TrEMBL record:
<dbReference type="InterPro" id="IPR043138">
    <property type="entry name" value="GGT_lsub"/>
</dbReference>
<keyword id="KW-0732">Signal</keyword>
<feature type="active site" description="Nucleophile">
    <location>
        <position position="378"/>
    </location>
</feature>
<comment type="subunit">
    <text>This enzyme consists of two polypeptide chains, which are synthesized in precursor form from a single polypeptide.</text>
</comment>
<keyword id="KW-0808">Transferase</keyword>
<dbReference type="GO" id="GO:0103068">
    <property type="term" value="F:leukotriene C4 gamma-glutamyl transferase activity"/>
</dbReference>
<dbReference type="InterPro" id="IPR029055">
    <property type="entry name" value="Ntn_hydrolases_N"/>
</dbReference>
<feature type="compositionally biased region" description="Polar residues">
    <location>
        <begin position="497"/>
        <end position="509"/>
    </location>
</feature>
<keyword id="KW-0865">Zymogen</keyword>
<comment type="similarity">
    <text>Belongs to the gamma-glutamyltransferase family.</text>
</comment>
<feature type="binding site">
    <location>
        <position position="461"/>
    </location>
    <ligand>
        <name>L-glutamate</name>
    </ligand>
</feature>
<keyword id="KW-0317">Glutathione biosynthesis</keyword>
<dbReference type="InterPro" id="IPR000101">
    <property type="entry name" value="GGT_peptidase"/>
</dbReference>
<comment type="pathway">
    <text>Sulfur metabolism; glutathione metabolism.</text>
</comment>
<feature type="signal peptide">
    <location>
        <begin position="1"/>
        <end position="23"/>
    </location>
</feature>
<dbReference type="InterPro" id="IPR052896">
    <property type="entry name" value="GGT-like_enzyme"/>
</dbReference>
<dbReference type="InterPro" id="IPR043137">
    <property type="entry name" value="GGT_ssub_C"/>
</dbReference>
Length: 568
């Protein structure tokens, strides 16, 4: 969760005392592990909210598969965590299909309005698209994503899949800690927009921790989807309501934009990291940044570099800086821009970039290579079933409560993903009508020898590639189990160039979670790094690892969230 992200920079300042990140005394495992992995054979679900996990478990127990259960969990997430996701947002997924023994990628992100042009945005004197209001709204792709997944892989009728979310939206649920933490500030920021108070603060104030919250309008909308399918959203009354609302409030998203929306089935791309194939989706998302970073880091022998050491953190951050310059220059909607994906994720290119890293000094000036973000609020979930199907799914409104634009009587917020276009002419990610924006949300998957090994993701805006790389390294280089890999203190870095046009700012700032000793921080500062604290900037992780030998799923959930891993 990044909405209230705070960074405190320690530019060479001495801080008294030491940090520790020790869980209670456990019999086994790393000292920072908060719990053991959950193990089961028949099914596994890992989400950021227990009610979402239980909805998916119920679908699995009643004969549904992993795809059905993932949709049920995502629908429930939109009810119980509306501050970070919902049907007004976009979706990406990677599916391991046990029948064909293949990975399938789905890009269910929406495009910009036909009627909004770069000239119109320039006429308004904008250098960036604002984060709230009608201008950053792009077509919501989530619902089409559900029905594309269901059409290709599902088996449970959609009314049964959505029944849990409909019931809790209508009857209510107690607001949990993380949602309550952010809800009030978001109401203060977004309460001026139409319908926000009626839907999200019906008593006149944001619900507090433990208070019951109901969203009957969302229940009615979900019920229409259950009965009428995806066309009820994109071509029926819901689309007409959105069109009318946007016109009334100075927006550009129209019925045509919704009616012509399509998702795309795409092939995931991969790199091999020390014998494991790590899979991501190609742009318009930032997934290949993970593959680029891993290629750079593979050139170092981490069996001789301890986890959490200055050498580990320095190399990790310097690799990130190099890759994020490529991310800023190249990543965009591939229907509009030439993105040299295979060149960017090639090992020889990584070797050239690695040669730019000074092992003793933080780089203050980094440029994009020449081969032949921003905060965000997101949910990630993963599901596996008894047949061996696995789903890695991520979904988001972008910032908390998205654009703040809540269409009449529908009960959800439209996303503000359009904030992530550049308004500088001639760039890959420059705004254009009917174009997908650069996207931060990325699902991931790992295979080994052609077998599924792990489905995982780490939500959290521009932190996501860093989070993915840390999970992979924690398991493969440092021998952690999936829960330990997620609980380990994390490394973030800010200050790189962005696809929205901002340029890098010197060495940037490393922010470290509690758990790194002062000696490490001091050594990093000697190398020229700025080091500080980060509040809420370290993402949220869920994972399912598959033990092929024993045919057992190992589920892990994010200790920084209010989630649950459960199996049966």
């Amino acid at each position: 969760m990044h909405t209230a992200t705070t960074r405190i920079v320690l530019a060479g300042l001495l801080i008294a005392g030491a940090w520790s990140a020790t869980a209670q005394d456990r019999l086994t495992g790393k000292s920072f592990a908060t719990r053991a992995v959950v193990m089961a054979r028949n099914g596994m679900v890992c989400t950021s909210h227990p009610l979402s996990t239980q909805a998916a478990i119920d679908v699995l127990r009643k004969g549904g598969n992993a795809i059905d259960a993932a949709i049920a969990a995502n629908a429930m997430e939109g009810v119980v965590e509306p501050h970070v996701n919902g049907i007004g947002g976009d979706l990406f997924a990677i599916v391991w299909d046990a029948k064909t023994r293949k990975l399938y990628g789905l890009n269910a992100s929406g495009r910009s309005p036909y009627s909004l042009t770069l000239a119109e945005l320039k006429k308004r004197g904008l250098t960036h698209i604002p984060s709230a209001g009608p201008l950053p709204v792009s077509v919501p792709g989530c619902v089409d994503g559900w029905f594309e997944l269901h059409k290709r892989f599902g088996k449970t009728p959609m009314p049964d899949i959505l029944a849990h979310a409909i019931r809790y939206a209508r009857e209510g649920y107690p607001v949990h800690d993380e949602a309550a933490f952010y809800w009030g500030s978001m109401i203060a920021r977004m309460g001026k927009f139409p319908n926000v108070m009626d839907v999200y603060a019906p008593t006149g104030a944001a619900p507090k921790r433990g208070e019951l919250f109901r969203n009957p309008a969302l229940a009615n909308t979900l019920d229409k989807l259950a009965k009428g399918g995806r066309d009820a959203f994109y071509k029926g009354d819901i689309a007409r309501t959105i069109d009318t609302f946007m016109k009334k409030n100075g927006g550009f998203l129209s019925y045509r934009d919704l009616a012509e929306h399509t998702s795309d089935w795409i092939d995931p791309v991969s790199t091999n990291y020390r014998g494991y194939d790590v899979w991501e989706l190609p742009p318009n998302g930032q997934g290949i940044a993970v593959l680029q970073m891993l290629n750079v880091l593979e050139g170092y022998d981490f069996s001789k570099i301890p986890w959490g050491s200055p050498e580990h953190i320095h190399r990790f951050v310097e690799a990130k800086k190099l890759v994020f310059e490529d991310r800023a220059k190249y990543y965009a909607d591939m229907a509009f821009a030439n993105v040299p994906v295979q060149d960017l994720i090639a090992k020889p290119y990584a070797a050239k970039r690695r040669a730019l890293i000074n092992d003793e000094r933080a780089a203050a000036s980094v440029e994009a290579g020449n081969p032949a973000l921003k905060d965000g609020d997101t949910i990630y979930l993963t599901v596996a079933d008894s047949d061996g199907n696995m789903v890695s799914l991520i979904q988001s409104n972008y910032r908390g409560f998205g654009s703040g634009m809540v269409p009449d009587v529908l009960g959800f917020t439209l996303q503000n993903r359009g904030e992530l276009y550049s308004l500088t002419e001639g760039q890959n990610n420059t705004y254009a009508p009917h174009k997908r924006p650069f996207h931060t949300i990325i699902p991931a998957f790992i295979t080994k020898d052609g077998q599924p090994f792990m489905s995982f993701g780490v939500m959290g805006g521009s932190f996501q590639p860093l989070g993915h790389v840390q999970i992979v390294m924690n398991m493969i280089d440092f021998g952690m189990n999936p829960q330990e890999a997620g609980d380990a203190p994390r490394i973030d870095h800010a200050g790189s160039s962005e696809p929205t046009g901002e340029r890098s700012t010197g060495v940037g700032t490393i922010t470290l979670e509690s758990g790194y000793p002062y000696e490490t921080i001091r050594a990093l500062m000697v190398k020229g790094h700025n080091v500080g604290y980060g509040l809420g900037s370290y993402g949220g992780y869920q994972a399912i690892m598959y033990d092929a030998k024993n045919k057992v799923y190992h589920g892990a959930t994010e200790s920084r969230k209010d989630g649950q891993a459960a199996g049966f």
